[in-house]
């Protein structure tokens, strides 16, 4: 058995290395770490700019900073190694939990079932994929997956040591991502409910690790002036179930996890019937487990219904993969009893979960634009479902939701090629602040270490993060767009052919795009909206196309600078693949920066930051 676990561990590490990638967003944290190492603290732009919390992983940044300071290894070189290390820690937690799973009568599940569950988890693309990226995801998942099973401990095992472990896992999650604050609140509530007659000294000792979270929140408020990271204000605009629900549906489809729901429903009915004489007492005895289920449901529902999914493919759902498989194994064991039947159930869901790997194999030729329908590359029997999946993916892609890790890998390489090697680029003796206005800021921020970058998408800018972009439905400058798409029906037959849509797209972008750049876009349009005829859009389909394209902006791309804001910083930096040119100003900007920021923040307080 130990040899089997070792083989699975090697497979886990090999799989993570095979899917290895660094994304541009990871370089945002790298810049914060660089500024901290230079003595400025965890800031995006050093003083005299005010500090802004544009990263989401405090503990991750601290770890990267420590490794750089102690061992001289820069974040781009250490991040994925550390990330895989936390993935290995998560693997160990999964193995430990799997071999403690219990059946209906409280007996431990056979080793074959536990080992099969672990093997199924290791076979999941998303589980392996998010052991890299350079982001804090692997550390957060390790904390989350450690926290959840602890809530299912039987009452006799829930002492002070248990509560301290539960609190430590919740604290680690909260220090890694703001989502973890939900785990902290649930841990406090669960501890109070689970204690029965409370022993306040024991509870206080068990909850002691949460003091670190309180200290971090207090520091965040004092240093950044906010209770939440700036990224929250930049990304959360309005509820967006129109994107979140397809995001979740594609996640279930690719991972075969839709099978989990009918099994869970049958299990819940069977469990309720078995405990019908004392169901309230049984539920109360399992209060921490109910807290865990509530947290998982709320966290998932929040991202689906409020946030609209995530910019990255299944990152915010990745912790569900091991938890879903472990719970599926338990439910099947309690329903089926026979080991062979349980293994068959696990094998069935494993077959359906291979769809994620099919997608990866069929989309291996993906380009930076990320548009790559794969239904026609597959056998005919698979095409109907995959056409639905392609359509959902394309619709999400329009709005920058669920962008694939392959695409991020390619994009990062492209961004690296836009700039010279990392360094300082201000001319010798230059005593002002070089300023660049940029939208994709990760690699740029890491490379240009002495250049102040105004993030015009708002992730690292306080003002932009609180300025709503244009309302595409009502903005006057876009009214002509809605009229022009119908006006592109040159033969007046009531439909738009591919060539007519091509002409409209070319006009929309001022003729700046080459055919190779917007032909994939046309493929997406006709895949999504051409139902009556595959080669033309009728009037209703054209209206649906316009509404689908302009009904909402894009994930993390809906904030734009208010008029005059970026100009106030007098940008004077021009980067290229070989050099970064800084043009000196007639009047230095540096002494004026505090007044500029104070003016624009005051406008926000007065409600004046409105593009429309």
Describe what you observe in this structure.
Helix 5 (111-122) packs antiparallel against helix 17 and helix 20 (383-398) packs across helix 25. Residues 472-478 have low confidence and may be disordered. It is globular and about 80 Å long. A two-stranded parallel sheet has the order 1-2. The longest helix has 24 residues, at 75-98. The chain starts with a helix and ends in a 7-residue tail after the last helix. It is 58% helix and 3% strand. With 612 residues, the protein is mainly alpha-helical. The chain folds into 3 domains: 2-398, no CATH class; 417-469 and 559-605, no CATH class; 476-550, EF-hand (Recoverin, domain 1). It has helices at residues 2-18, 26-37, 58-71, 75-98, 111-122, 125-129, 137-150, 160-176, 180-194, 200-206, 211-224, 230-235, 241-255, 260-274, 279-285, 287-307, 320-336, 339-353, 355-362, 383-398, 405-416, 442-447, 476-487, 498-508, 515-529, 539-550, 593-605; strands at 435-438, 452-455, 496-497, 536-537, 573-575, 580-582. Strand 5 and strand 6 form a beta hairpin. It is built from 27 helices and 6 strands.
Compact summary:
With 612 residues, the chain is mainly α. The chain has 27 helices and six strands.
List the defining traits of the structure above.
612 residues, 58% helix, mainly alpha, two-stranded parallel sheet, single chain, two-stranded antiparallel sheet, Recoverin, domain 1
Shape, please?
globular
Beta content comes to under 5%
Query: Which parts are unreliable, with pLDDT below 50 for 5 consecutive residues or more?
Result: 472-478
Number of strands: 6
Terminus-to-terminus distance:
65 Å
Helicity, as a percent range: 55-70%
* Tally of discrete structural domains: 3
Largest beta-sheet details: 2 strands, parallel
Looking at how many chains there are and whether they match, the oligomeric state comes to single chain
Radius of gyration: 26 Å
- Rounded mean pLDDT is 87
> Count of DSSP helices?
27
Class per helix and strand makeup: mainly alpha
Order of strands, main sheet, comes to 1-2
């Amino acid at each position: 058995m130990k040899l089997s676990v070792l083989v699975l561990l090697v497979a886990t590490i090999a799989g993570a290395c095979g899917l290895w990638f660094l994304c541009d967003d990871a370089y945002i944290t790298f810049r914060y770490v660089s500024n901290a190492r230079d003595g400025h603290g965890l800031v995006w732009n050093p003083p005299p700019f005010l500090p802004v919390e544009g990263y989401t992983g405090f503990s991750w940044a601290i770890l990267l900073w420590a490794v750089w300071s102690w061992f001289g290894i820069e974040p781009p070189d250490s991040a994925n190694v550390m990330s895989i290390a936390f993935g290995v820690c998560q693997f160990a937690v999964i193995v430990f939990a799997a071999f403690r799973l219990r059946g209906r009568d409280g007996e431990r599940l056979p080793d074959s079932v536990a080992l099969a569950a672990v093997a199924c988890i290791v076979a999941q693309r998303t589980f392996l994929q998010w052991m890299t990226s350079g982001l804090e995801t692997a550390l957060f998942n390790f904390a989350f997956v450690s926290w959840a099973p602890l809530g299912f401990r039987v009452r006799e095992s829930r002492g002070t040591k248990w509560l301290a472990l539960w609190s430590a896992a919740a604290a680690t999650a909260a220090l890694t991502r703001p989502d973890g604050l939900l785990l902290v609140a649930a841990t406090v509530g669960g501890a109070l409910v689970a204690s029965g007659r409370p022993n306040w000294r024991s509870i206080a000792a068990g909850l002691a690790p949460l003091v670190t979270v309180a200290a971090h929140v207090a520091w965040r408020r004092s240093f950044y002036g906010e209770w939440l990271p700036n990224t929250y204000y930049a990304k959360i605009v309005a509820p967006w179930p129109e994107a979140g629900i397809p995001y979740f549906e594609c996640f279930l489809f690719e991972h075969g996890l839709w099978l989990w729901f009918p099994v869970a429903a049958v299990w819940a009915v069977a469990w309720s019937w078995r405990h019908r004489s004392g169901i309230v007492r049984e539920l109360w005895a399992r209060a921490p487990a109910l807290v865990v289920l509530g947290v998982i449901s709320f966290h998932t529902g929040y991202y689906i219904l409020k946030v609209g999914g995530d910019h990255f493919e299944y990152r915010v759902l990745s912790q569900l993969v091991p938890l879903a498989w472990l719970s599926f194994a338990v439910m099947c064991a309690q329903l089926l009893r026979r080991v062979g039947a349980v293994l068959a159930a696990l094998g069935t869901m494993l077959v359906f979960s291979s769809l994620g790997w099919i997608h990866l194999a069929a989309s291996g030729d993906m380009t930076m634009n990320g548009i790559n329908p794969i239904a026609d590359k597959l056998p005919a029997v698979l095409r109907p479902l995959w056409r639905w999946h392609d359509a959902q993916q394309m619709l999400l892609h329009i709005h920058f939701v669920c962008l694939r890790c392959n695409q991020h890998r390619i994009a990062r390489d492209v961004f690296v090629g836009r700039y010279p090697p990392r360094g300082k680029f201000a001319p010798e003796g230059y005593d002002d602040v070089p300023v660049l206005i940029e939208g994709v800021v990760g690699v740029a921020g890491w490379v240009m270490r002495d250049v102040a970058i105004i993030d015009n998408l708002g992730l690292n800018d306080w003002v932009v993060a609180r300025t709503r972009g244009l309302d595409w439905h009502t903005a006057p400058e876009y009214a002509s767009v809605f009229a022009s798409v119908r006006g592109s029906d040159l033969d007046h037959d009531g439909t738009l052919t591919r060539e007519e849509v091509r002409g409209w797209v070319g006009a929309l972008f001022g003729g700046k795009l080459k055919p190779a750049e917007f032909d994939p876009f046309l493929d997406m349009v006709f895949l999504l909206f051409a139902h009556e005829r595959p080669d033309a859009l009728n009037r209703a389909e054209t209206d649906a196309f316009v509404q689908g394209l302009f009904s909402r902006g894009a994930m993390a791309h809906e904030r734009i600078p208010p008029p005059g804001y970026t100009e106030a910083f007098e940008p004077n930096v021009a980067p290229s693949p070989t050099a970064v040119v800084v043009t000196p100003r007639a009047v230095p900007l540096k002494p004026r920066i505090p007044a500029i920021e104070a003016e624009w923040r005051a406008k926000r307080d007065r409600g004046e930051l409105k593009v429309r």
